[in-house]
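quick one: FE2/S2 (inorganic) cluster bound model?
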Amino acid sequence: MSTNRRGFLKGLVGAGAGAAATGVAGCAPDISPAPVLDATKDSSGRVVLKVSRYPDLARPGGAVTLRVEGEEQNLLVMHPQGTQYAVVSNTCTHSGCPLGFEDGEAICPCHLSRFALDGRVTHPPARAPLSTYTSSYDSEADELTIDFVAGEVGFPAVVGGKVFFPFTDFPQLRTAGGRVQGTPQGYGKLIFVFALEDGSYSAVDSICTHAKCPVRYREAETDLYCDCHFSRFTRTGEVTQGPATRPLTKFTVTSDATGVTVTIV
Ligand code: FES
Ligand code: FES
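yep, here:
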C-alpha cells in the first residue's frame, strides 16, 4: 500500500454541523450523524487518514463523515473493531439523511433504516443499498487509505482518459442489444456500455441524477432503474420517469474494427 501520498485534512467539525450542511431536520434525538471531517484527494485519487489523529474514528465503534473535495457524496468511514474499517456513502437511500454508526451498522437518524458494513439494507424503510468504497488499513503506519478510483479486477482501466473494450474480450458489443458493465480502474464508478439496435453505441454513468443512488440495468425493461425513488432512464441516459429530471452522465463512444472506446475525461 502506498504511504507516501496524503490527502490534505482540513479539520474536524461537530455532528450538528454535518446535519446542518445537508439541511436535514427532525432526526431522532438519541442518534447522531457521524461528525464531519474534511479532506482532499491526493494526485492518485486517494485520501489517506492517519487514524490516531481522529479520536472519533480511532476508537472501535467510532465513525466519521468524510467530506471530500470534488466528491458529490459524503462518505461514512466506520471502525467497527480492531483493524477493521469500512467505507460507504453517507446518504441514506430512503430520503437522504446523513447516517450515524451504532452496533456495527450504519443507522439513519431520520427513520431508522440500518445498513451493514457492505452497504446492504438490514432494516427498512430504505430499500436500496449504500455505495461502497475501497479502503485498506496499514496498521504499522496507522493509515487508512480510501481509493476513489479503484476498479474491478479484469475490467479495462482508464488509459489516457479512455477505456478500450476489444471485441475479442467483449464479443457482446458486436451484437445489437449487447451490454458491458463494470468499474474501470482510474474512474472508480460503475459504467454501462450498450450496443444499440441502430448500430450505434451508448455509454453512461451509473449515478442517478436525483439523489446519487446507483442505477441498475433491468434486462426485461431494457432500462436503467433507480431503486431509491424509482427513476428510470433509457440506455442512452434519458429520463423516462422521475423524480430525476436530468439525464445520466453520458460518455463519448467510438468504435472501429477492433473494439469500442469510451472517453471518460
Ligand atoms: S431518510 Fe433514512 S430512513 Fe428515512
Ligand atoms: S436517487 Fe432518487 S430516484 Fe434515484
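Residues 208, 210-211, 213, 226, 228-229, 231, 243-244 surround FE2/S2 (inorganic) cluster (ligand 2) (CB under 6 Å).
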